[in-house]
Fold this sequence. Notes:
It is a single chain. 0% of the residues lie in helices and 36% in strands. The protein has strands at residues 5-8, 14-17, 32-34, 37-39, 78-84, 90-95, 100-109, 120-125, 129-130, 135-136, 144-146, 156-157, 162-168, 177-185. It is built from no helices and 14 strands. It folds into two domains: 1-57, no CATH class; 63-185, Jelly Rolls, CATH 2.60.120. With 187 residues, the chain is mostly beta strands.
Amino acid sequence: MGDKLRIYDTKGDLQEFDPIDAGGSNAFTGNQAMGGYKLTGVGAPTIEGDALSKGDAVLVGTEVAVVADSNVIGGIPVIHRITIAAAAKGAHNVTLTHKERVIDVWIICTADNSGVTGATVASRNGATNAITNAMSGVGTDNAIVRAGTIADAYYEIAADGTLNVFTDATGANGGAYEVCVLSIRVA
């Protein structure tokens, strides 16, 4: 028989099975018995060697595991991108589907904001609990500004909680930004 296919079951244990049936002639069809388990609905790869492909979204935040404290394997971070148009001062909210811990926030100026008076960008847990300091949004096009502080009292946002990116300016208009919020899933 040929090479065995290895996959992790729902308990996290590595399982093996032969993609050729017991008779040695029929290739795997998408429904395959495997001891006490059965693989079902497995489609053909979309490109050669890409058996896990899901089209454009190979891995998305809903499939990322919780990153436990002192995790020896490590974890995959999740990023939220919030595009803010020029003059769009105020709250820009994202309702999270899973509990997350914010570990970094930065802004990318997508226009020349050097003439925007007193422009700031901050991330919050809900409407008022500041996760980061207010970052200066006054910058030239393509400038990057990173948060200088993260408040551990508010950096965990509950499932169904609100990630709030708040932009302000003392002048009439706010700046144009791409705000990137990097987080990890937590229990």
